[in-house]
Structure formats: C-alpha cells, structure tokens
C-alpha cells in the first residue's frame, strides 16, 4: 500500500493553482486599500478591477455586474431575498422555488421565510422535473410578488447537469427571476447554457482560487437585491466591508486560468473519469455509477457499491491514502446520508462515494485509485461471503 497521499476530492475544494498562488502572494505584498485615493490605493483598485474582469469573463458577463462576497454561500444569501430594487424602485419577490438537490447554500433559501420556499422535485435521472416546475409556476400567487427560481447548473455530488436553459424558458414565461448556482460547473464546462440566468453564483476555491471568496454576477445593475451587508458602501453598495483583496486577486487569476484551458481540461478529466469507471466496473460488476448515461461533469464519478456504507468506504479509501468523499463535504466533518440520492429515489442508506478529479490529476493516480477500489470491493465480498 502506497503511503503518499492522493487527492481525488476536487469538488469539495480544488488545490490552489499556480496562477492563483502567484497572484495571491503578489497582492499580499500590496499595502493599499482599494477604496483609498492615493497611489497605493489606486494600485490595489486596479488589481481588484482586473480580477472583476477576469471573473466576468469566466461568467460571460459585463464586469460592472460582479459583486465579490465571502463565498458562494454569502452570494446565495445576498440574492435569495424577497427584496429587490429595479433601478430606484422596490421590487418584491413573492416566492422562491429551489430544487430538491440544491446545495444547502441555496436550499436554505437565504432571506426568504420558510413558508415562502417550495421544493422542485427531481427525476430518477437526477435532473429537475420540468413538468413539476411548470406546474409550480402556474400555481404561483402573482399577487404576492414575482416568482424566483434557484437551481444549480451541475450537482456537487453526482456531477449531473441540470436543464438550465429549459428552466430559464419556464421562469421567463412566468415573469420570474432565475438564479443559477454555477459553483461546480465553473472550470469544468461551457457556461453558455446559463446565459439566460439573471444571476450566477461562483466560488473561488472550487476553481483553484483561495477559499473564502465568491461572487454574485448579475446581468446588469438594473435589477439588484437589497444588500445583505451594509456599511461603507464597497462593491457599489451591494456588499460593504473592505474587500478580501488578496483572495479576490487570486480568484481572478484562477478564473482566467480556468477559461484559458477549458476544452483541453474537460477532455483530460473525462478521460480520467472513464478510466476510473471502466476499472471499477471490471473489479466490481455490481457497482452503480449514478448518472452515467446522462449529461454530467467531466470530472465527477458518483458511485455505490451495494453492501458498502459511505462512511466505511470513505475511511477505507482514506486508509489507502486516497482522499475522496461521501457526497458533499459536511461542515461538521460527519458523513451524512445524501439528500441528493434520496431525491433521486434511491434508499440513502445505500451509500455512495464521490471521486472528483482536476486538471493536474494523472492516469497513474487513477490506476492507483482503481487498485484501491478493487481491494475494498474484494474485502466487501469476502465479508459478505463469511
Ligand atoms: N454551491 C455548490 C454547488 C457547492 O458545491 C458549494 C460548496 O460546496 C457551495 C454552493 C458553497 O460554496 P462556498 O464554500 O463558497 O460557500
């Protein structure tokens, strides 16, 4: 058994990429506050605005509509609110519709009262039930305000892609506002499919940038949520507080890196994912690979081995020196049952593991993961036979 560690949990967080590390260190050496008018302040402002353009390019949007936050969770809490402004006029959102497989950052519904949040079911395929969404929107009480729909582009556990273009069409025909959580999709797929979203959410640490910085990207500044954090008026008043300047600059560099190499990276990651899944199927023909026959992220394999609990599997891989995870990374560090698996109609007690790769993962590492998988699957069979 090799003792060197192998990191295959890129959906939980991606290691800092070189471009981000260099930019981050440079920015840490810059003394100015981006809001100061002297030369040091102006230099910091220029670096901050460069990062804004880099992130806007990743999102395919105008830089004017990029609001930096402390992460995707804060961006979600900023935008998921009943209170918006359209220009100078207040605009009321009456109800929030979120899918059953959303990350808790979205599922919790931000500033909406619980009775103003409804769940959109998903199909066994792991995709949003569009008929159910259409029905929810038909039943929406327009008197209370506009509907808001918040869905993810790619699921963090399964990697399954959501029909965001069709969700956009339904939302628009109901006169609603669409928020798309593009956290897991960024750097792993072309984001053009989310072009009709009113708001996009990204997180730096999922694309090789530093942790603790994210962004809300609006279509323009006409329609904006009432701020969540008020104070000195930074970020054009949309998010007060001195910006996390070095992290933002690092985020910008990671975003540029992600855009530059996207096609080649997608091909590389899909090759590794397929290598793992072919090896896993050979070692354990009863392995269930969730979402294997539909559209999904190039880098993610979400699988169940009947008879192997998530927790046991995760520990077994960890003892093999391999970091992968049982679905999403719970804040408490405990391995919970997957709400995504449950929403897809599986018994969550089935358990599932997520292997997620990145651009610097190599074939030899995947070969090692397959060997570990085979040993773990073999032990499971031996136990079952005993
Ligand atoms: N949305 C998705 C799909 C995620 O995977 C995550 C992080 O795991 C988040 C939102 C929250 O991101 P952050 O860690 O930046 O708050």
Walkthrough of the structure:
With 386 residues, the chain is of the alpha/beta class. 36% of the residues lie in helices and 16% in strands. It has helices spanning 18-28, 39-59, 72-79, 104-107, 130-138, 164-173, 245-260, 262-283, 310-319, 339-343, 363-385; strands at 6-7, 66-69, 83-86, 89-99, 117-120, 146-152, 177-181, 199-203, 214-218, 223-225, 288-289, 300-304, 322-323, 353-356. Strands 2, 3, 4, 5, 6, 7, 8, 9 and 10 form a 9-stranded mixed sheet that branches. Strands 11-12-14 form a 3-stranded antiparallel sheet. It has a two-stranded parallel sheet with strand order 1-13. Strand 6 (146-152), helix 6 (164-173) and strand 7 form a beta-alpha-beta unit. The longest helix is centred in the C-terminal third of the chain and has 23 residues, at 363-385. The model has no long low-confidence stretch (mean pLDDT 94).
Task: Summarize the structure in short.
The chain has 386 residues and is α/β, with parallel strands linked by helices.
Q: How far is the first residue's CA from the last residue's CA?
A: 24 Å
Structural class: alpha/beta
Strand content: 15-25%
For the sheet with most strands, the description reads: 9 strands, mixed
- Count the helices. How many? 11
**What are the low-pLDDT stretches, counting only 5+ consecutive residues below 50?**
none
Name the shape in a single word. Answer: globular
Mean pLDDT: 94
Element order: H for helix, E for strand = EHHEHEEHEHEHEEEEHHEEHEHEH
Question: What small molecules accompany the polymer chains?
Answer: pyridoxal-5'-phosphate
DSSP E strands, number: 14
Residue share in helices?
Answer: 25-40%
Report the radius of gyration as a whole number of Å. Answer: 21 Å
């Amino acid at each position: 058994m090799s003792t060197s560690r192998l990191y295959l949990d890129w959906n939980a967080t991606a290691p800092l990429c070189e471009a981000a590390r260099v930019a981050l260190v440079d920015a840490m050496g810059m003394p100015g506050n981006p809001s100061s008018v002297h030369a040091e302040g102006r230099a910091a402002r220029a670096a901050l605005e460069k990062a804004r353009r880099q992130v806007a390019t990743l999102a395919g949007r105008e830089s004017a509509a990029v609001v930096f936050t402390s992460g995707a969770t804060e961006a979600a809490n900023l935008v998921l609110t009943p209170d918006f402004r359209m220009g100078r006029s207040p605009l009321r959102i009456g109800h929030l519709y979120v899918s059953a497989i959303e990350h808790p950052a979205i599922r919790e519904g931000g500033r909406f009262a619980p009775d103003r949040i409804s769940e959109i079911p998903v199909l066994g395929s792991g995709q949003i039930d569009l008929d159910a969404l259409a029905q929810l929107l038909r039943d929406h009480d327009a008197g209370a305000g506009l509907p808001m729909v918040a869905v993810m582009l790619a699921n963090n556990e399964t990697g399954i892609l959501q029909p965001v273009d069709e969700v956009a069409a339904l939302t628009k025909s109901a006169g609603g506002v669409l928020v798309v959580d593009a956290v897991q999709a960024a750097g792993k797929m072309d984001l053009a499919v989310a072009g009709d979203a009113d708001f996009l959410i990204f997180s730096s640490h999922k694309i090789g940038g530093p942790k603790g910085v994210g962004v809300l990207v609006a279509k323009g500044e006409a329609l904006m949520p009432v701020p969540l954090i008020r104070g000195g008026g930074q970020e054009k008043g949309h998010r007060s507080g001195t910006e996390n300047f070095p992290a933002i600059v690092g985020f910008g560099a990671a975003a540029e890196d992600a855009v530059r190499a996207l096609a080649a990276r997608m091909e590389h990651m899909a090759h590794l994912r397929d290598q793992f899944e072919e090896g896993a199927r050979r070692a354990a023909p009863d392995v269930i690979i969730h979402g294997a026959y539909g559209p999904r992220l190039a880098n993610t394999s979400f699988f169940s081995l009947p008879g192997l609990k998530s927790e046991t599997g995760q520990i077994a891989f960890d003892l093999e020196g391999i970091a992968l995870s049982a679905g999403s990374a719970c804040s408490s560090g405990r391995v919970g049952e997957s709400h995504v698996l449950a929403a897809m109609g599986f018994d969550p007690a089935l358990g599932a593991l997520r292997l997620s790769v990145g651009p610097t993962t190599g074939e030899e590492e995947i070969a090692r993961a397959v060997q570990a998988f085979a040993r773990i699957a073999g032990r499971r069979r031996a136990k079952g036979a005993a």
